[in-house]
Amino acid sequence: MRSFTPLILSLLGVTAAASSAADTDSATTNVISLTTDTFDDFVKEHELVLAEFFAPWCGHCKALAPKYEDAATELKDKNIPLVKVDCTVEEELCRTYEVDGYPTLKVFRGPESHTPYGGARQTDSIVSYMTKQSMPAVSSVSEETLEEFKTLDKIVIVGYVGSDDKTSNKSFTSFAEANRDNFMFAASNDAALAKAEGAKQPSIVLYKDFDEKKDVYDGKFDEESIMQWVKTASTPLVGELGPETYAKYMSAGIPLAYIFAETKEERDQFTEDFRPIAAKHRGEINIVTLDAKLFGAHTSNLNLEPEIFPAFAIQDTTKNSKYPYDQSKKIDAKEVGKFIKDVIDGKVEPSIKSEPIPETQEGPVTVVVGRSYQELVIDNDKDVLLEFYAPWCGHCKSLAPKYDELAALYADVPEFKEKVVIAKIDATANDVPDSITGFPTIKLYPAGKKDEPVEYEGSRTVEDLITFIKENGKYQIDGLAEGAKPEQGGDVTAPASASEKATETPAPSEEGHDEL
Ligand SMILES: *[C@@H]1O[C@H](CO)[C@@H](O)[C@H](O)[C@H]1NC(C)=O
């Protein structure tokens, strides 16, 4: 374990004067441009470097530029240089480092050792990530350095372990090594210091600059239990949702409650008002505020009306069900608190976005919408093949005539019609319980086994789909058995091309709205 005292000095900028003197063009930019000739020497001379490989025409690179600049300015004081390489000029260099998209960010510890940058492309995230990279996974703290260490990041984690307790030391150290990108860790074996911090040995204390300021863990010292505790303890009672925190909340495994408000004052007030509710339901639900001016478009994903703020909704992130709060009502913490409890207790029906149920089914393909999904797909004793499509998806359009042809094979034969249904749903206009990542997605819900749908992975030809239904359906119906062969045999047996299997992912959201 390295002692962290000298590091703290450099982190706190004691060496800043020396490093800024070396820079000449700092008046205009703190990001250093490097070329094939200068790159290797530069990363040899600096212990830790963050490099951006970019192309001048790349939109994401342009969006990153001001944030990268700000991060470079902040990190300059900590002696961590941020550099950039124009890959349209330095082609050879970019090939050497296997740059295959722009921007690519890599952390260098010398020319031989580089790892992908693993944080968000935001100033704060870059600063925090690189600061953590500059420290050992576990720093050593003493009575003299503990207070200073606590101030180094929003959250720091300190293990208090007896000097002869090798088992706990090992668990804590490997936990720290696995999570060093996300948190700063320190350890101490000073029993008196542990006592002064209200902790026994072994235990772990998470210090944070919000809520109750610290949490003590003295449960089992295995990585999984520690992780579970850190997840809860590091999440603010009422947090703020933005591009940096979105992924964390979506993968937390518990529902997320959104409070949309347009002004900072309102959001601060809601944060205060909802804290006791969040404390009561800690570990059951996460609560966040979000800036309705920037992220108002997110209301449509939660089945809320746009532009009526403040607004409140809960999303069950594992089932993707949505519980919008009545927008004619005021967002009152006490009333909303009851709603939150009812949702957690399963007393509220999720809202389902749905097109109107069609009065008649026109073609051979059955049209399913959000409100008829349960009846037409799940609550029946038929083998149901369902295509999830999007109106803008080109692969879906080219599938359409073949899908109609397939559907007709079953719809036109009375004894088949009883047992097999070929259906489709516009998954952009209707809520479905399935998590769909690309279009088209095709699944078979076999009779009697509706909770185990089988996803179709083959090429999108009529013949292969017929075989799929026959092999995976309860009734093993062969759509071609009645002699009703599809007309264009040649097309049907053509080998699968890449585009017949490809799916499309949703188009980026409209310009002008920030994406979460
Ligand atoms: C944990 O073990 C390492 C390696 O043996 C040692 O350097 C360190 O001081 C120990 N940490 C504590 C808190 O005892």
TrEMBL record:
CDD domains the record matches: PDI_a_family (cd02961), PDI_a_PDI_a'_C (cd02995), PDI_b'_family (cd02982), PDI_b_family (cd02981)
Annotated Pfam families: Thioredoxin, Thioredoxin_6
Catalytic activities: Catalyzes the rearrangement of -S-S- bonds in proteins
Domain Thioredoxin: 10-135, 343-474
Keywords assigned: Disulfide bond, Endoplasmic reticulum, Isomerase, Redox-active center, Repeat, Signal
Presence of the UniProt keyword Endoplasmic reticulum in the record: yes
E.C. code: 5.3.4.1
Cleaved signal peptide residues: 1-21
Keyword Disulfide bond: yes
Entry-linked InterPro entries: PDI_thioredoxin-like_dom, Prot_disulphide_isomerase, Thioredoxin-like_sf, Thioredoxin_CS, Thioredoxin_domain
Biological process, per Gene Ontology: protein folding; response to endoplasmic reticulum stress
Broad class of the protein's primary localization: endoplasmic reticulum
Disulfide bonds: 58-61, 393-396
Example of a GO cellular component annotation carried by this entry: endoplasmic reticulum lumen
Compartments reported by the entry: Endoplasmic reticulum lumen
Residue numbers spanned by region Disordered: 479-516
GO molecular function terms attached to this record: protein disulfide isomerase activity; protein-disulfide reductase activity; unfolded protein binding
UniProt family annotation: Belongs to the protein disulfide isomerase family.
Function of the protein: Participates in the folding of proteins containing disulfide bonds, may be involved in glycosylation, prolyl hydroxylation and triglyceride transfer.
Protein name per Swiss-Prot or TrEMBL: Protein disulfide-isomerase
